[in-house]
């Protein structure tokens, strides 16, 4: 079993080249970036001597558990995509973390992030889920990320609804491609509560083939500049907004006329019934 530990770091070429005349302890203490991607690592051992780590690259390994990172108070970026992780855990002490990459693992529930009040990006695309299962979200985690999170990637996770994500009101980029989203009205309701949203990609979902799908989302997302990889023309958006307002005004007028007619003639004669 390959473990990420101080000995492995010491044996790495980067260490031997950069250490120079300083001691190993001094080198480890100064280390801010650690790159052990694609090294067949299965476990994170004690690396607490690297007290000043800010970026860790551990993608494309065989790691099953996020652990032994509680010492990394300065950690801001953690790349652990394409491993064998099943749970998001043991990150409560890494409170400066702002970017977390966990795509391509086997995570079933988005949880355990309640203490990460500075997390800005969360990447969870392509989880290896059991057949028929979908990626789920712990409401406590979503609520804790409601102020900080601006980028969310949940593509290719068999997701069929996103109503729980409505609390993420500061999202600017949202990617949920190749899922099972079908309800355009739900998408309208949720996206209308994301006033900062500028880029969204929902391509590969059944909803994309529904009538007026693009028009409806462009209308409710006032700051959206790109939908499904296609730029949004501001003149087109304004035309759609005006068209929707005109349609709603016309419907309101018709409803008022109908109500007035019913009040004026509560018991319509045959002629009035034919008119109605």
How would you portray this structure in words?
Helices cover 29% and strands 14% of the residues. The chain has a single domain (29-275), classed as Ribonuclease Inhibitor (Leucine-rich repeat, LRR (right-handed beta-alpha superhelix)). It has eight helices and 14 strands. A ten-stranded mixed beta sheet has the order 2-4-5-6-8-10-11-12-13-14, with no helix packed on it. The protein is elongated.
Secondary-structure map with pairings?
Blueprint: E1 2-4, H1 6-11, H2 13-19, H3 24-30, E2 33-35, E3 41-44, E4 55-57, E5 77-79, E6 99-101, E7 109-110, E8 121-123, E9 136-137, H4 139-144, E10 151-153, E11 173-175, H5 184-191, E12 199-201, H6 213-220, E13 226-227, E14 230-231, H7 234-264, H8 270-275
Parallel strand pairs: 1-3, 2-4, 4-5, 5-6, 6-8, 7-9, 8-10, 10-11, 11-12, 12-13
Antiparallel strand pairs: 13-14
Helix pairs in contact: 5-6, 6-7
